[in-house]
């Protein structure tokens, strides 16, 4: 048992640092390939370093490292102390020093002269890097420390947090590089947040259905018989009509959302149904849909 736990811990630790390493290297490549050559500063410490590089000529990676020192101290206090410190220090050193080391292998020009492409791909690649780092349980320091604290305590999506915390940096970039560069930086910042959310939460592939009906047993039987989906029910009351109803809840894969609506409408034409989006579903009877006319499943009494 101990040997098995030890192996699981080693596997988890290896996966953690694999994600951190991949995220840090991808982030360093992103700065050199898309952001710095096009003067795109989409907020954060990297954006500040790109601006200072333009004004003073200081190396971007070394500047990022110096700016990150006080932010790492802040994260040490509020984000897990030594547990935060080990993963974040590793990520920051690999990312920040990697920017200057990788720069020696690439020419000081972008892959393309089209700034919009650099802005879009800078956001996509940067968001992927951020998502990998967060999934590894670390941060790249900078405004990522603030973003992670706010996300953990408020549930605000990362995209919105970056728009709030990095606005001043984008404004400074607009003053240094021009307002057009600032607008491109906003595009990068927005796409960056969307890509990070996608890596962290995955695609929206689950549909959540809420059904208000006066025929809960008939609807439940039809849904289970035709689609083999588990249903949860609870009593409710219409506040306007003061009439008792039942609320049914179930999850279904995206391709079968239409079939669920049809089954519910046939079982209770007066049912009120709302279908929303979800990212993940586990446990229960989910995703076992079958075609109409297939053999009926037996339910446990």
Overview of this structure, please?
The protein is α+β, with helices and mostly antiparallel strands. The chain has 2 domains: 200 residues, no CATH class; 73 residues, Alpha-Beta Plaits, CATH 3.30.70. Helices cover 62% and strands 10% of the residues. It contains 11 helices and 4 strands; from the N terminus they run αααααααααβαββαβ. A 4-stranded antiparallel sheet has the order 2-3-1-4, covered by helices on one side. A hairpin with a 6-residue loop joins strand 2 and strand 3. Helix 1 runs parallel beside helix 4 and helix 2 packs antiparallel against helix 3. The relative contact order is 0.12. The C terminus is likely disordered.
Q: What are the defining features of this structure?
A:
single chain, 301 residues, alpha+beta, Alpha-Beta Plaits, 11 helices, 4 strands, 62% helix, disordered C terminus
Could you outline the blueprint of secondary structure elements for this entry?
Layout: H1 2-35, H2 44-56, H3 60-78, H4 82-103, H5 115-135, H6 143-154, H7 158-165, H8 167-177, H9 179-201, E1 206-213, H10 216-227, E2 232-237, E3 244-253, H11 257-267, E4 272-278
Helix pairs in contact: 1-4, 1-5, 2-3, 2-8, 3-4, 3-6, 5-9, 6-7, 7-9, 8-9, 10-11
């Amino acid at each position: 048992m101990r040997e098995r736990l030890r192996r699981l811990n080693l596997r988890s630790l290896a996966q953690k640092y694999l994600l951190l390493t991949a995220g840090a290297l991808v982030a360093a490549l992103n700065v050199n390939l898309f952001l710095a050559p096009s003067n795109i500063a989409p907020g954060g410490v990297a954006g500040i370093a790109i601006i200072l590089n333009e004004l003073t000529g200081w190396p971007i990676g070394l500047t990022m490292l110096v700016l990150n020192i006080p932010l790492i101290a802040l994260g040490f206090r509020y984000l897990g102390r030594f547990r935060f410190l080990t993963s974040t220090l590793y990520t920051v050193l690999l990312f920040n020093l990697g920017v200057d080391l990788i720069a020696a292998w690439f020419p000081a020009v972008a892959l393309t002269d089209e700034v919009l492409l650099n802005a879009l791909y800078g956001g996509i690649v940067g968001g992927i890097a951020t998502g990998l780092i967060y999934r590894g349980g670390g941060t790249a320091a900078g405004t990522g420390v603030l973003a992670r604290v706010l996300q953990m305590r408020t549930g605000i999506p990362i995209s919105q947090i970056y728009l709030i915390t990095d606005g001043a940096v984008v404004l400074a970039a607009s003053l240094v590089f021009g307002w057009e560069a600032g607008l491109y930086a906003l595009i990068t910042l927005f796409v960056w947040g969307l890509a990070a959310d996608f890596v962290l939460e995955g695609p929206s592939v689950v549909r959540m259905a809420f059904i208000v009906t006066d025929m809960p047993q008939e609807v439940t039987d039809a849904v289970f018989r035709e689609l083999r989906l588990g249903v949860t029910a609870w009593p409710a009351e219409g506040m306007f009509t003061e009439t008792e109803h039942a609320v049914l809840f179930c999850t279904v894969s995206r391709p079968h959302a239409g079939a669920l609506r049809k089954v519910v409408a046939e079982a209770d034409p007066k049912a009120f149904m709302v279908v929303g989006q979800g990212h993940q579903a586990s446990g229960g009877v989910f995703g076992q849909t079958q075609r109409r006319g297939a053999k009926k499943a037996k339910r446990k009494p």
